Structures are given as structure tokens and as C-alpha cells.
């Protein structure tokens, strides 16, 4: 009996000690996981999966070294966070930086960095990482680094403040910090292979990447902000429109973004699918080669073509058009003004002007790739309504086209420009347009000297009007983008998806 009581006592002591030790282990483990923020350990996330079809899977995820628009679109806001970001109206919004101030002279920017931020590996993100990332962009000559302007210094007086000083004004600096140059990298990540993986601070991590084929983003359970609503998003490349349309129609994939006009039109009205249109900054133009040995170097010839071509009619006839343009700045960019009234289609005025040239205006070369051939044939027909000039339409391969444009052996071409503030290209006489006009260049220089956003927008408006009045090119229309998605999906972006595709709010019903 005495022995039995002793055995029971020893068992009680054993159980108590075991419970205490278990509690201590649990407490210690909790402290470790909290202090190191082990991603996904405490929050495995939802088990929902979404598949997205695209046509341009990148070959590398290293958007520091290569100017890959596809990598930028898939990774920004998803895997990588930027100092600032943009909303669906292309307006600047807080990102890693919750606030920013610009000095009166436009040379000093003070950014307040959010507290409690972490990278996907558990490391803390602070102002020191921001400064290190900017320094790396300059010393390593990251893609697009010139957009930072003449950066004099970047310092962090404390963990939550970054001060950027410029040697000369750069009114588009904040815009640059909302893109690839605004990505904050982990200064303690070591020799991470950024071509195949990523150490970001966004709501997703890179799960698996097969260059040119597929990319899987996984839920980041250690994300410091509002976490993603889905567990994984897998992007798969499709080589042609037919296979892409077939996949989304059969439900093999849940979404196509961005979708081509052909795929969007085929899927429109199909049960279980929603086709959505969104705005972009993509501008379609009939570009003029203003080089001195080109007939388009004559301002009167350029003006004649602006009146001759029915730009409004072309814009209305294109299924990817969101409206006629008339100038180098789209409605989503700073400095936009409706300039479509400058050169209305006017055959009588055109006939008067062409009679002035006599035998001088005989033939003009229009060089395009196959994707632009239908529109090029329309333009050829419109120009050849008059006795002169005739149009030599050349449809060439992508490789030949790139060489012709670079060599300047063209007079007219159809192309698109897709980027905020890319109107400044025309102020560079060494650009592919070879446009050289002192007054227009001064107007652009005035805009670049602006010290605040409002001043910059107003001066860009002046520049754009002067550029269009001189008929430096013929801006036809702004494009729209398309998304085809299963009706079970919601919360996905529909505007600017040709540039960035934030999917943290993506939800499966």
C-alpha cells in the first residue's frame, strides 16, 4: 500500500514536471518565432489557388539587372514593395514610405518609412535598407537608374527617415520611386540568386519559377500588412491566342491578364467569365522621322499629314482604343490636355497645302511590323486619296524593323509608347524621332526644372501643346487593357495591368 502511494506520487511529480517543461518549450518557441517572424509558420494561409494565363513570362526575375516589363508587372506589389506605389488612376500613393515632403527648392525629399516592416526571410526592413537599395541602384547601374536623376546623397538619420538630396531638380523622382527603382531590398540577404528567387517584403513570396514557362507566388504568412486572400497564384505562359482562349474557356486557367483584344472579344458573353476593360498609359501614334534627310523634317509636310489623316476615325475603329489622343500625354499622366482639336480631318485644307508642294511631295515610306499592317493599309488609303504622295508600305520582321528604326531608314511608322512621362523622348534630338526644335526643348527643360507636382503638370501641358502644334508626330489614340476572369474571382485590378498587377486583394468566391 505504501509502495503504491509512492508510485502514484512519483507519477504526479513526473506529469507536473512534464507539463512545466512543455509550457517552457512552448513559450520559448513562441518567442523565437515572434522575434524572427518565420514566414508562414504561424499562419499557413488559405488553401485557395488561382491560375493566370499570360503571354510574356520573363526569363529572369532579376528586375534590377534587366528592364523586363513582364517581371516588373508580376513582382511589383506582390513580391516586392516600393517606396511609393500607384493606384488604378496612376496617382501616387504611400508604399513603404507612409509620407514624403519636398523642400521648396525641389532638391530635398524626406520620406517617412513605416515601422514594423519585415522581409520574407524575417529580417527587419528599415530606412537603412532603403538607403542601401538606392546606393546599390547607382553603383551597380540598375536598369533605368537614370530616372533617379542627379542624386547627390541618400541618408537615414534614423530607422524611420530617409533624406534624398539632388544636385538638380527631378520632378519625376517620386514616380521613379514607385517603380523598380523604389524596390527596397534586404541589405543582409547575402548572395541571394535574384534571377530565380526573391527576398521581398510583399504579401507573396516566389514559390517556383521556370524561366519562360511559369511562376508560382505563395502566400506570405509573415507579411506585415493586410495578408493576401489566396494561397497561391500561378502564372503560366501560353504561346498563342488560340491556346490561351481555349484554356480560359475550359476553366484550365482562372484568368487572363492582360488579355489581347482577340481573346477578350472571343470570351465576351461566355458563361462563367467576365471581360473587363481598363485604362492604360499606352499611346498609339503614327510617328514621323524628323531627320534632316527625311521629307517629314518639313513642318508644312507634317502639318499636311495631320490634317489629311482621319485620326478620330481611326481611333473610333480600333477595338483596343479608349479614345482619340492628339498629343503625347495620355489622360492618366501629369500634364494631360485634350489636343484632338488641333488638327481635325480636313480634306479641303489638305488639298490646298499639297498643291503648294508641287512635284516635291511624291512618295513617303511607311515601315511597320505585321501587327500594325491593317492600320497601316488604312492610313495608306487615306493618304492616297490625293494625287500625291504615294505610300511605299513595307511590312517587315521584328528584327528588320528594329534595325530600320535605329538606322533612321524610315519616314512614317506605327508604334506605341507605354510609360508615364515618356513624352520627354521628343525633346531629345538623338532619339529615334530625330525631332529638334529649340522652343520645344526649352519648354521641356522648364518642366524638368519644376519644384513640385502641380508646377510640373502645368509646364508639361505647355510642352505637349507646343510639340503637337508643331506636328512632331500624329498621336492617334490611347489604348485600353482587358481582363478575362472567372466569375468566381473578385478583387483583381483592371486598369494599368499592362504595367503592374497587384493581387493581394484577389478573392475566390
Overall structural class, as computed from helix and strand content, comes to alpha+beta
Mean pLDDT: 91
Radius of gyration: 28 Å
Oligomeric state of this protein: single chain
Count every helix, treating DSSP H or I runs of 4 or more residues as helices.
13
Helix content: 25-40%
What is the rounded distance between the termini? Answer: 65 Å
Unreliable spans are 1-41
C-alpha geometry: globular
Note the beta-strand portion: 15-25%
Count of DSSP strands: 21
Largest sheet composition:
9 strands, mixed
Task: Label this structure with key terms.
disordered N terminus; alpha+beta; 509 residues; 4-stranded antiparallel sheet; 9-stranded mixed sheet
